[in-house]
Amino acid sequence: MDNTGFKRHRRLRRTESLRALVRETKLTKEDLIYPIFVVEGEGIRKEVPSMPGVHHISLEYLNDEMKELEALGIRSVIVFGVPKEKDAQGSQAYCEHGIVQQAIRQIKKNVPSLAVVADTCLCQYTDHGHCGLVENGEVLNDPSLELLVKTAVSQAEAGADIIAPSNMMDGFVAAIRKGLDEAGYSQIPIMSYAVKYASAFYGPFRDAAHSSPQFGDRKAYQMDPANRQEAIREAASDMEEGADFLIVKPALSYLDIMREVKDRFHAPLVAYNVSGEYSMIKAAAMNGWVNEQEIVMEKLTSMKRAGADLIITYFAKDVAEWLNE
Ligand SMILES: [Zn+2]
Fold first, then answer.
1. Could you give the domains of the chain?
2. Residue 187 three-state SS
3. Taking each helix axis from N to C terminus, what angle separates 316-324 and 62-72, rounded to the nearest 10 degrees?
4. Ligand 1 center–CA 123 separation, angstroms
């Protein structure tokens, strides 16, 4: 307090160098994980219509894409596969020569410095588009776990550095940890989609991954957006089961959940900045309604401020470029 009787907060905001000195949260290139969509087939490099700047690529374009990321200073990718053939059991998810397994082998051979995260789910591989086995219109829990374990082990065999199970079956971390350990992969960490909401923000991803459910929705296994305490229960059981990282998905509407998970559990926290969050900004920016760079930097910084250590984001390349400038 000075003789005016009030506190002068603006003292610390007066110049850019002062602001930089007192800045509490910093976004860095090391925070970013870039999602890639690898498709079966040849000569494919196709933009996802609802996600400008995001492409489906076939394997011959993968090396260039990875070299580009490496040059930008991005250290990690999460790999999603789009197979040619789908069936009720999602068998291409755990096939030795599945598209994701091939992509992982190729990345680890050509750009070994990139940390490869394998998304472990069945919905891109099942003809019904659900994340597990379906019987009488219901997604079965325990039988789906067996297939998920097979998928995780085959991804580890292919060279994945991190396994990221996303299907929201109960017990998936325990089952995968046991399966990986028994197969000799006790050193491979699990990045669990611990807190995954049944969100409308996933729409454009389902375009990208061709993974829309053919009937019903995912509300019987993904979480109700209205629930906070349930997020704590989900994160707690995943930590007990052996998760090494915790993911909160989506990010922007769930910053409160991120903060709470970060305060309660001492594990690296990952924000998944999902497709809908990306597409809305892209659409507004293309119309000239917002400044894309400023809004993206603000948004990702808010996720870090909320407690995220890492951010899975389709903006990773743009952000790395802006940070390099
Ligand atoms: Zn899924």
1. 26-324 (3.20.20.70)
2. coil
3. 40
4. 4
DSSP H/E element including 281: helix 275-286
Q: Write down the pLDDT at residue 317.
A: 97
pLDDT for the residue 213: 82
For residue 2, how far is its CA from the centre of ligand 1 (angstroms)?
Answer: 58
Q: What is the pLDDT of residue 34?
A: 98
- Give residue 8's pLDDT: 94
- What's the rounded Cα separation, in Å, for the pair 178 and 253? 33
Tokens linked to 129: 């588009």
- The pLDDT score that the predictor gives to residue 106 is 97
Q: In this structure, what DSSP letter does residue 37 have?
A: E
The angle subtended at Cα 237 by Cα 232 and Cα 241, nearest 5°, is 150
The pair of three-digit structure tokens given for residue 16, joined into one six-digit string? 């850019």
How big is the chain, counted in residues? Answer: 325
Q: How far does the centroid of ligand 1 lie from the alpha carbon of residue 298, in Å?
A: 29
Contact 147, 90 (CB under 8 A): yes
Handedness of CA 109, 110, 113, 117 (dihedral sign): negative
Does residue 118 contact residue 176 with C-beta atoms inside 8 Å?
no
Q: Which residues are catalytic?
A: 196, 249
What's the CA-to-centroid distance between 250 and ligand 1, angstroms? 14
Nearby residues for ligand 1 (ion, Cβ within 5 Å): 121, 123, 131, 167
* Separation between Cα atoms, residue 298 and residue 321, nearest integer Å: 16
Determine phi and psi for 170, rounding to 5 degrees.
-65, 140
User: CA-based angle 180:163:136, to the nearest 5?
Assistant: 85
Total-model pTM: 0.95
Per-block average pLDDT, block size 10, for the chain (325 residues)? Answer: 87 96 96 97 93 95 96 97 93 94 97 96 92 90 95 98 94 97 98 95 81 82 95 97 98 98 97 96 97 98 98 98 95
